[in-house]
Amino acid sequence: MDPIVATGDFAADAASFSAYWRSVPDAAAAREARFTFLRRHARTLYDHLTDGRRKFVRLERLVYDAADQVPGLVPTRAEVDAESALRQSEKAGREIDQGILCNQFLADPECGLHLCHTMLLPREESAEALAKFQRDGKLDLGGARVERQGKAAMLVLSNPRFLNSEDASTQVALEIGADVCILDPDSKVAVLRGDVVPAGKYAGKRVFNAGINLTHLYHGRIPFLWFLIRDLGFVNKIMRGLARPDVTPDEVSGDSIEKIWISAVETFAIGGGCQILLATDFNIAARDAYMTLPARKEGIIPAMANLRLARFVGDRLARQAIMYERRFDCDSPEGRLICDEVVAPDEIEATIDRVAERITGSGAVGAIGNRRALRFAAEPLDTFRRYAALYAREQAWCHFSPALIANLEHYWNAQSRRA
User: Fold this and answer.
1) Which site among 194, 217, 239, 383 is 20 to 30 Å from 344 CA-CA?
2) Which helix (H) or strand (E) holds 222?
3) pLDDT digits over 288-307, tens only?
4) Which 3 state secondary structure label does DSSP give 66?
5) Which helix (H) or strand (E) holds 416?
6) Are 276 and 263 a contacting pair, CB within 8 Å?
7) Burial (CB count <10 Å: 0-12, 13-18, 19+), residue 137
8) pLDDT tens digit sequence for 142-182
């Protein structure tokens, strides 16, 4: 079958390409046709889905609205749900097309910035969660909870069975928790911390973050969109604060709602945990804690670490950490390039209070102003948007690569672990 050509007429091309995808037997040709269609029509499609960018449609809905709008372009919700019970190695890789779609939406400057804006807005559930937190002084979200500690609203990652790794059970909870911490009028700073692990090797210890749940990844319980939702939502909200619907969320003209974020690293910050430390404003670490980015052993891209890590440790050490799994002990010269204070494990609580007091001692307004200025110099929103476009495409390929499964079996013994 000859390659299909886009005419430039959105409605006509949507119909002809949909017919082509129904009939073409070659999966590679079908995928190339999706690129062809989107290179011509990504902005038009995005505007159809968002009423000319007057509506904010979150990513997890946007991709399925696109499936309804242009059949065959991306998998339907039913098609993704049908594969959700399969191991990762058994999936057909239909979600790669979601990565292609997100790549093209984000690659367009206007659509991409609008999508970033959308994902920085507070979630719908967060207003009710904030009211509950203000009433009770605590909030249990399942995979995370919010507590008060002095001047701080503390977000605690809680997935102790999996050493506080991140997975589908923590994703929404962490993002709502971040919204609540940022919006809470009774706190001056936000703190991110891991819960106490009750059993096993680390029984009785707090663990900051064990990264992505590799067991769930192997068993197919981490959908592709999980990666983008996490880093355009939860992690980017820590980095940039919350957006307002009527103001562009950039550092020059925006008016974001922000808090200073402090991370308290205990035991280890692996993978996604280490990534978060590159987005927070001040990192406290226990002397016996360490950080790694084991992307090589997983076969995936460590989210925004490729964008941010070199700013902290330089290009060569960043490459060693990402491509050769170099470990950084927090209490080392390299570790102190990421960790601002390294203290005895039993001094973490007091250090959180002291750092919160010092950071806000000259007023929260000045601290936030400096935060915005530093971020603008290091990583303007449009730089993030362009990187996210690349990440969407490359992570989709990695997520369904046979090498991912081979790596998890070789390094993680994933086939024998109970999900």
Assistant:
1) 239
2) none
3) 999 999 877 788 999 999 99
4) helix
5) none
6) yes
7) exposed
8) 999 999 999 999 999 999 999 999 999 999 999 999 999 99
pLDDT digits (tens, 9 = 90+) for 198-224: 999 999 999 999 999 999 999 999 999
Which residue reads 């609540």 in tokens?
A: 180
User: Residues 328, 330, 334, CA angle at the centre, nearest 5°?
Assistant: 55
Give the total residue count for the chain.
Answer: 419
Burial of residue 114 (CB within 10 Å: 0-12, 13-18, 19+) is buried
135/125 Cα distance (integer angstroms): 16
Host H or E run for residue 403: helix 402-411
- Give yes or no for a contact between 349 and 266, defined as CB atoms under 8 angstroms apart: no
Q: How far is CA 73 from CA 52, 92, 247, 279, 280, in A?
A: 20, 15, 32, 34, 37
Residue 243: CB partners within 8 Å, gap ≥ 6? 117, 120, 121, 249, 254, 256, 257
The residue type at 415 = Q
Segment 70-92, tens digit of pLDDT: 999 999 999 999 999 999 999 99
Name the amino acid, one letter, at 390: L
Pairwise CA distance, residues 120 & 138, whole Å: 23
| Amino acid at the residue 25 | P
User: Domain extents for the chain?
Assistant: 10-119, 123-379
CATH of 10-119, one of 3.10.290.10, 3.40.630.30, 1.20.58.1300, 3.90.1150.10: 1.20.58.1300
- The overall average pLDDT reported for the chain is 95
**Rounded (5°) CA angle 33-302-385:** 60
Nearest to 191 by CA among 302, 276, 270: 276
- 262: helix, coil or strand? strand
What is the Cα–Cα distance from 266 to 225, expressed in whole angstroms? Answer: 29
- Which residue bears the tokens 């909030």? 139
Distance CA 106, CA 297 (A): 28
Has domain 123-379 been given CATH number 3.40.120.10? no
For residue 291, what pLDDT is reported?
98
Token code pair at residue 323 = 């491509």
